[in-house]
Amino acid sequence: MSLSVYDITVPVMVHGLNVMDDYLDHAQTLERTKGFEPGSILGERLAPDMLTFGEQFSVSCNKIDAHMAKLMQHDPLAPRNTPMMYPALKGRLLETRGFLQNVRPDEIAGAQSHTYELTPPIVRGWFGGDDYIRHLVLPDFFFHISIAHAILRHLGATIGKRDYLGNLTQQSGGDYS
């Protein structure tokens, strides 16, 4: 079985955005049940030099926009500053999910065969499409989901690996319970 660039990016990112949407719900529930000030979890971070919980969502959406623009050989959109409020972050996730759901497989077909220039802060240089997708696009996306998960766990949310994996039945047709 052969997977296309579309198969390993778009549905995977849509699924991840659904997980992130659930994490915003978990954060609000945690604020209510543990007596946190409403919205305060959005400002939490694991270490002083890391992005906040809320920024994980905004940055992740901006990176999806940038990575997909590269793969589609379009000019990248300017990064957007999303207000650090639950409704705004949920709206940004919804917009990004909608954008991905409108990407057609033919728009990124052959993206693995192109060469992409990467610039700091992460890395500088030219990368083949396979390496760009496997070693930057996907790990970069999952990093932000993982950090959001870790922040919630650190604050006492009762979430685990099952929450990180999300609703597998909608994607695989099987029952993960």
UniProtKB/TrEMBL annotation:
It comes from the Bacteria. Gene3D superfamilies: dinb family like domain. It holds the Pfam family DUF1993. InterPro entries: DinB/YfiT-like (IPR034660), DUF1993 (IPR018531). PANTHER family: BLL2446 PROTEIN, DUF1993 DOMAIN-CONTAINING PROTEIN. This is DUF1993 family protein. It comes from Mesorhizobium captivum.
